[in-house]
Amino acid sequence: MTTSHVVVIGGGIAGLAAARLIARGGARVTVLEGSARIGGKLHVSEVAGLPVDEGAESMLARRPEGLDLVRDLGRAGDLVNPGTTSSAILSHGALRRIPSGQVMGVPSDLRALASSQVLSPAGLARVPLDLVLPETPHGADVSVADFVGARLGREVVDRLVEPLLGGVYAGRAELLSFESTLPAVAAAARTHRSLISAVQGIRAAAPQDPGPVFASFRGGLGVLPGLVAGDVEAAGGTVRTGAMVRELRRTPDGWRLTVGSARDPEAVDADAVVVAVPAAPAARLLDAEAPAAARELARIEYASMAIVTLAYPATAFRRLPRGSGYLVPAVEGRGVKAVTFSSVKWPHLRDRDPGLVAVRCSIGRFGDEQALQRSDDELVAAAMHELALTCGVDELPAETRVSRWGGGLPQYNVGHADRVARIRAAVAAQPGLAVAGAAYEGLGVPACIATARAAAGRVLEHLERVKSRGGTAHGSDGEDGQAEGPRPEPGDPVHDVVGLPREEPR
């Protein structure tokens, strides 16, 4: 298998993680990244001398894949955990602590919900009806708004669930899949008449001391892609940037990729291919050889967002923030949907320069692209206005940065799990082909790595099967109709795009 050649299309964390496993499995691997840098949405740069992530700033520490990768790289000692994950929701014009006992905004403790004052008196009075309402039928997938709203009332959706999901998907509760975005809640709801009781069951079954929620690096999570790429190259692989793949076609012996411009195309041959790019480019690449998968991929929509990072003198705050940040429900009508006090959340940033407070403001929701058509200066002004209004910030920032992520977040809308199953079935019918990335079973770093593991396993099994037959790469290895290994749990319970809040461990 040492002469087998595998090409991974896409140099984000999923593609790099897949390439690393394939290289370690004995194949020659080439990563082709179309942009000028690797890492996708994992990227870090300095603002006023502080290394602050431009995209995802942390990964879930309660899901193993990310930490396992870091340990395998020999860099576990470089990991850091947040100093606090205590945060708030801006509701009815004021910052209010997220009620304890909730799971992605779905409450289990009515007293804590009442004391938080997140809901209006009418909204709060509606919630306990869940305990006496007849069981909601479980049939085809429905939206988060439909299921949670029917059980607990629309205000729980608007002021608790949607803000938390907004940090993950920047999506709309009327469109997002209940099964795919709240998988643990959806599973528990199948065995409980009451949604409150279902969440109480989830909470009761949770470990008493689960450990830190998030992890990152002192230099920012954006250092991870470089570490993985270095390991790929150490194992004999190649990582290329500025190598846009325009076409993917089968050949009698494997696959041929057309790379580069139409004027100066380059042909790259491979025994197997992993497609680890977002849904739209994946659809274009698979259209000729896996049209059924391409059609389904083309139906996955994406939300755009921008992260405005501001470095303020500590004196700009009348009182230094104590929590990690806050979320802003869409119904509040504010331009910013989330704020993270990075220098509070990550003590290493505060220690690096105690005189600065780094803040990240997230702007942009699905269907509201107009909000992102403003100039960088206008987005910075919107972030400054939010901080002045809510936190009383009365000085100018020392430095700012605007990071735009056009089409950055896949939307797990109603029917997503079935759509992914159809994609995987169509891909499984093509020998030597696999897919990976955030479009399938979770947006967080660990979930992406899980898809990379499955893709790498499928490719290595294919190459081993070909080697044992002594035949070409296009013997039929799709005859069992199986997709790429076990499916990870759909959807992360929390995610790290803006640093979602979590109640402090008790």
UniProtKB/TrEMBL annotation:
UniProt gene name: hemG
Pathway: Porphyrin-containing compound metabolism; protoheme biosynthesis
Full protein name: Coproporphyrinogen III oxidase
Annotated catalysed reactions: coproporphyrinogen III + 3 O2 = coproporphyrin III + 3 H2O2
Cofactors that this protein relies on: FAD
Domain Amine oxidase, residue spans: 13-460
Enzyme Commission code(s) on record: 1.3.3.15
Keywords: Cytoplasm, FAD, Flavoprotein, Heme biosynthesis, Oxidoreductase
Class of enzymatic activity (EC top level): oxidoreductase
Sequence segments annotated as region (Disordered): 467-506
Reported function: Involved in coproporphyrin-dependent heme b biosynthesis. Catalyzes the oxidation of coproporphyrinogen III to coproporphyrin III.
Basic and acidic residues: compositionally biased ranges: 486-506
Protein family (similarity comment): Belongs to the protoporphyrinogen/coproporphyrinogen oxidase family. Coproporphyrinogen III oxidase subfamily.
Superkingdom of origin organism: Bacteria
PANTHER family the UniProt entry points to: PROTOPORPHYRINOGEN OXIDASE
Compartment list: Cytoplasm
NCBIfam families: proto_IX_ox
InterPro entries attached to this UniProt entry: Amino_oxidase, FAD/NAD-bd_sf, Protoporphyrinogen_oxidase, Zeta_carotene_desat/Oxidored
A molecular function GO annotation: oxygen-dependent protoporphyrinogen oxidase activity
One Pfam family cited in the UniProt record for this chain: Amino_oxidase
